[in-house]
Design goal:
The complex is a heterodimer of chains A (about 350) and B (about 500). With about 350 residues, chain A is an alpha+beta fold. Chain A has twelve helices and 17 strands. In chain A, α7 (about 180-190) packs antiparallel against α10. Chain B is of the alpha+beta class. In chain B, β8 (about 170-175) and β9 form a beta hairpin. In chain B, about 55% of the residues are buried. Classes of the chains: A alpha+beta (about 350), B alpha+beta (about 500). The interface between A and B is large, with 88 and 93 residues. Chain A: InterPro entries: FAD-bd_PCMH (IPR016166), FAD-bd_PCMH-like_sf (IPR036318), FAD-bd_PCMH_sub2 (IPR016169), FAD-linked_Oxase-like_C (IPR016164), Oxid_FAD_bind_N (IPR006094).
Chain lengths: ~350, ~500
């Protein structure tokens, strides 16, 4: 257990010298994602300080072990938030490592778009920083993006600098029900072409029926939601809408089955909904982004879903530790570069060896 | 390939290049090469050994392969409008100009994607998907600068406070690596599994490879746009207004500030009827849903007045909005009327530090006896001080450059960055060690070595001192630059 970046560096250096395989762990909320959990746990629990919160600059610096909920509470006291709303649980470091996201992805982008700087600990004990503490900065390479979604396989993310956003003044959500996947997909496509500034545009689907949810924020959130509701027809406007979105986030997790993440296109939505129906699954989708999370009763169903959605990439998140092929194949050329990246950043090969795409 | 093979490849390189791209697209005469001796930053000049103008992705790949076989460095160039010397040729190397790769390959508005070749101009993307969609990153040079160059530099622009930068809009790349391999990073979809090599590549200033295809995300055009210009007695008061606007939770599409010197110069050029002698002008643009935009816009007008503006002008139509922007975008060229020469600096500070930083810049300007005009993207703290000098006065250019460097140190002392959008290139290499520790630079080098172990792509850029890639793991092999005595292993 270490409680500072320099202590972390010393611990990692020793483990690297000994060739001991490690896995960085935050709160363990997403431990089974994308494959196994082998290796000695490297806990960030002692890296739990909010190093800086600069309300006037809309930035903050957080140690990796800070729970997202704790950070959000601090930011909210200044009317701000880190525009990341994945399912509950998780630390900053863990969320950067898994690049998880929730409905807010639609408006604010993903983790990669909100991280402005990182402090990394590499397997030889090197402490390296990339980026900075300002929103706009193009000095040096963007290692923050390289480490975002790297699942702890390149090194330890010790500290993260983030961009913050103002909390929306008010919210309201338009909700429309559908029993035909094509009709839902068409409605989502029509909405995506309109000049809306929605906060979230999600779809939810289970057993041949579902809904489209469009959330607005701001001083005129209610009237914006009403105008979308009349555009959709047969739609309701929900002013007290937090529970709707909590349900969407919860739909991205599954304790006993598996969650398959689809990296698709908006025009795949129809196909995704039908593929889920075919295997008795349910769907939460970022309808305008092409991302979808299919919950299935058994992780082994990933094969069938991959066949139905080929050539789209399908990754097993929850349940990934119960299948041999949690990761899909990646472009062979890109995979070769990824192997070289791994060799350069983790020459000791101690960070979750073999646990990433292509056996990296 | 053995030493003799490399020698032979080097000797035959120009002929081999002619066979790939054609004799009429291969230039070796000094007069022809002058075109490529610098980019938008004219103080650095070098002639390449040869310049080529490939017309297809396959030709680019073949050119890169020939360079790999001959172990000759190369530099990719787009429109040459960069401001950090990023496209400065390597003497004795190959300059690969991508201007002929200027086709828009696919427009897929159902998925809000456009696929372009690197030589397509930034403005052409919005033109191709308009009026219902647009491409948000908007560097001031957008009518000439290329998307390939935007990817290399992670270009921003006036609207990036709200909309983000190039890196937030590139979803996929086809890249030719320095060994001639062609790889696909990302694609039309988001969240490709694996390392985000795409995110690492954007902004890598041509040092990791060259793009031949780029997938971009476009967004629906906003329903409404409202624009105002407010005049203040001082930059301090205008800065206060910016802080108030942002603190209230408003995220304008753009907030641009100009100081007294800049206002007067830009007005002489754009003739927008701006009053002379005012301390600062603030251009604020809100866009989005019509009702929301209107409600917030009234708030912004009130905030400007509350912070001391006695002259707030709201654009009545698109023509007037265009005039406001024309004045802002005239700021750089207009300085040519005020001063025979000037350096454009590009630094970033945390926005709240603005008053102190401007005071320090003023003090430095007095100390050096030079004029500094300030124009900046106020929302994200990206400053563009224009350091004016007279190149005919002996020593003044050097003094101006020193002042420009001192201004960067002020930005760093305030917790900022040495570049917000122009890139490091060759111009800011010497400042990298002020911002990053050796261990940080070493980590950057690890990435570079993973992509380009031979160090052939745009060498001598970004890093303060040339570094080589050790082998991992495997037997030691002497690097060609070592053999020639040009570099040592670190």
């Amino acid at each position: 257990m270490f409680s500072s970046v320099s202590e972390a560096a010393e611990a990692v250096r020793e483990l690297g010298a000994a060739g001991t395989a490690v896995r960085p762990v935050g709160s363990g909320s997403r431990a089974g994602w994308g494959g196994g959990a082998a290796g000695t746990p490297l806990s960030t629990a002692g890296l739990n300080r909010i190093v800086e919160h600069n309300p006037g600059d809309f930035t903050a610096v957080l140690e990796a072990g800070v729970p997202l909920a704790v950070a959000q509470k601090q930011f909210a006291s200044a009317g701000q938030w880190l525009a990341l709303d994945p399912s509950p649980g998780g630390t900053i470091g863990g969320l950067v490592a898994t690049a998880d996201s929730g409905p807010a992805r639609h408006r604010y982008g993903g983790v990669r778009d909100l991280v402005i700087g990182v402090t990394l600990v590499l397997s030889d004990g090197t402490v390296a920083r990339s980026g900075g503490r300002v929103i706009k900065n193009v000095a040096g390479y963007d290692l923050g993006k390289l480490f975002t979604g790297s699942y702890g396989t390149l090194g330890l993310i010790a500290e993260v600098a983030v961009r913050l956003h103002p909390l929306p003044a008010g919210t309201a959500t338009a909700v429309a029900g559908f029993s035909d996947p094509s009709a839902l997909a068409r409605a989502a496509a029509d909405l995506a072409r309109r000049p809306l500034e929605a906060l979230h545009v999600d779809a939810a689907w289970r057993a041949g029926a579902g809904r489209l949810l469009v959330r607005f924020g701001g001083v005129t959130a209610g009237s914006q939601a009403s105008s979308v509701a009349s555009f959709l027809g047969q739609a309701d406007v929900v002013a007290d809408d937090e529970a709707l979105w909590d349900a969407q986030r919860a739909g991205q997790r599954c304790a006993d089955g598996a969650v398959l993440k689809v990296s698709g296109r908006p025009t795949d939505l129809d196909r995704v909904l039908r593929a889920a129906d075919a295997v008795g699954g349910s769907v939460v989708a970022r309808a305008a982004l092409g991302l979808a999370w299919i919950t299935v009763p058994d992780p082994a169903l990933v094969k069938q879903v991959r066949e139905a959605l080929a050539p789209r990439a399908v990754t097993v998140l929850d349940g990934g530790d119960r299948v041999p092929d949690a990761w899909p194949d990646v472009d062979p050329g890109a995979a070769a570069v990824m192997r070289r990246v791994k060799a350069r950043f983790d020459p000791a090969r101690i960070f979750r060896p073999g646990a990433f795409v292509g056996g990296i | 390939m053995g030493k003799d093979g490399i020698e032979a490849a080097r000797r035959d390189l120009v002929d081999a290049l002619r066979r790939v791209v054609g004799a009429d697209r291969t230039f070796t005469h000094p007069h022809e090469l002058r075109t490529y001796e610098s980019d938008g930053l004219l103080q650095y000049r070098a002639l390449p050994r040869v310049a080529v103008l490939p017309g297809t992705a396959a030709e680019v790949r073949d050119v890169v392969r020939l360079c790999a076989e001959a172990e000759v460095p190369w530099v990719a160039r787009g429109a040459g409008s960069g401001l950090s010397g990023g496209a400065l040729p390597v003497a004795d190397g190959v300059l690969v100009a991508l201007t002929r790769l200027n086709r828009i390959l696919e427009i897929d508005l159902d998925n809000a994607r456009v696929c372009v070749e690197p030589g397509v101009t930034n403005a052409a993307v919005s033109a191709a998907v308009g009026p219902d969609f647009f491409y948000p990153p908007d560097p001031s040079s957008q009518v000439v600068c290329s998307i390939g160059g935007n990817v290399a530099e992670n270009s921003g622009g006036a609207h990036c406070f709200k909309y983000g930068f190039t890196t937030n809009y590139v979803t996929g790349l086809e890249v030719v690596l320095t060994d001639g391999e062609v790889v696909r990073l990302g694609g039309e979809e988001l969240d490709a599994p694996g390392y985000d090599l795409l995110g690492a590549f954007v902004g890598s200033e041509g040092t990791l490879g060259v793009t031949t295809k780029i997938w971009l995300r476009v967004v629906p055009s906003p329903e409404a746009v409202r624009t105002l210009v407010a005049f203040f007695d001082s930059t301090h008061a205008a800065g206060e207004a910016v802080s108030e606007i942002v603190r209230a939770g408003v995220v304008p599409g753009a907030i641009e500030m100009m100081d007294a010197v800049t206002i007067d110069a830009a007005e002489q050029m754009a003739h927008a009827g701006y009053p002379v002698g005012r301390g600062a002008a603030l251009l604020v643009e809100l866009d989005g849903a019509a009702d929301e935009c209107e409600a917030l816009f009234q708030e912004v007008v009130k905030t400007c007045e509350r912070c001391g503006s006695d002259d707030v002008r709201v654009s009545r139509d698109e023509a007037e909005r265009a005039l406001f922007w024309k004045t802002r975008k005239a700021a750089f060229p207009a300085m040519g009327r005020v001063s025979p020469n000037y350096f454009v600096q590009d630094g970033v500070i945390p926005r709240t530090q603005l008053p102190e930083v401007l005071e320090r810049i003023d003090a430095l300007a007095s100390e050096y006896g030079l004029t500094v005009a300030n124009v900046f993207h106020a929302g994200d703290g990206n400053l563009h001080p224009l350091v004016c000098y007279d190149g005919r006065v002996p020593g003044e250019a050097e003094k101006a450059e020193e002042l420009a460097g001192a201004i960067l140190q002020v930005c760093l002392d305030a917790g900022g960055s040495i570049t917000g959008e122009h890139g490091v290139g060759v111009d800011k290499r010497k400042h990298m060690s002020k911002m990053f520790a050796d261990a940080d630079l070493d980590a950057f080098q690890r990435l570079r070595c993973a992509f380009d172990p031979a160090g052939l792509a745009n060498p001598g850029k970004v890093m303060p001192t040339p570094r080589l890639c050790g082998e991992v793991p495997g037997p030691y092999r002497q690097h060609p630059l070592e053999a020639s005595g040009l570099a040592e292993r670190f």
